[in-house]
Amino acid sequence: MKTRTQPRFCKFELRILSYANSYYIERIKKLERLLARKPRTVKIDMIGIGEIPADLALLMRSVLLARSPKTRVITNARSSLQNGSVLVWLLGDQRLIREDARVFFRPAEIAEENETTIYAGLNDNEPKYKDSFSGIDPEEGDCARVLQAINEFLPVREFTGKLIGTAVLKQFGLIENERLDLFLATAFGKTEREAVFR
């Protein structure tokens, strides 16, 4: 009888394309199947000049968050990233980025005093949906949600609309910072060997 062994390391390519919803839908399905096999490590190589649409970035986020706690995800940005692509990259347990690459996210076009609300139909206290003539684009609601998720890693109010380089990402501990890792290892009494092989 054949026993299925748990794969150790899997590579997954994610091209960052413009206007490629069907491509992302197929890649999300494949990623979900890959994560269901519970590999020890999945490395997601991100390359391209487009961006992942907000709704699909949120879908990919839900897939990545639902993975086995034993599966470690490495996100490797081989290109600069923007908007929803930034969120997907941030979801890695370990993040890599090309030294001269940048990340960027734009503000959502929803005015705070005119927030989108949804009617759930439960009672009168529930928020009410604004009709399609209200001028609010549902995609902007997804963009706002992406910014909320990015805010868990970076202060969105400070960095929205700005190009963020690797020096800033290192300061926030989002990418490897050997000097900081060594300092923390020394401060908490670990040996250099333990600091490198965590």
Please give the structural blueprint.
Blueprint: E1 9-15, H1 21-36, E2 41-47, H2 54-65, E3 72-77, E4 81-82, H3 84-90, E5 94-97, E6 103-104, H4 138-150, H5 156-159, H6 166-171, H7 178-187, H8 192-196
Parallel strand pairs: 1-2, 2-3, 3-5, 4-6
Helix pairs in contact: 1-2, 2-3, 2-4, 3-4
What would your notes on this structure say?
The chain is built from eight helices and six strands. The protein has helices spanning 21-36, 54-65, 84-90, 138-150, 156-159, 166-171, 178-187, 192-196; strands at residues 9-15, 41-47, 72-77, 81-82, 94-97, 103-104. It is globular. The two termini are 36 Å apart. Helix 1 (21-36) runs parallel beside helix 2, helix 2 (54-65) runs parallel beside helix 3 and helix 3 packs parallel to helix 4 (138-150). Strands 1-2-3-5 form a four-stranded parallel beta sheet, with helices on one face. A two-stranded parallel ribbon has the order 4-6. The chain has 198 residues and is α/β, with parallel strands linked by helices.
List unreliable stretches of 5+ residues: 190-198
What is the averaged pLDDT score?
82
User: What is the straight-line distance between the termini?
Assistant: 36 Å
Widest sheet: strand ordering = 1-2-3-5
Shape: globular
Task: Let me know the number of strands.
Answer: 6
Sheet/helix structural class:
alpha/beta
Largest sheet: 4 strands, parallel
Strand residues, percent:
5-15%
Our Rg estimate from Cα atoms comes to: 19 Å
What percentage of residues falls in helices of 4 or more residues?
Answer: 25-40%
How many helices in DSSP terms? 8
Topology as H/E string?
EHEHEEHEEHHHHH
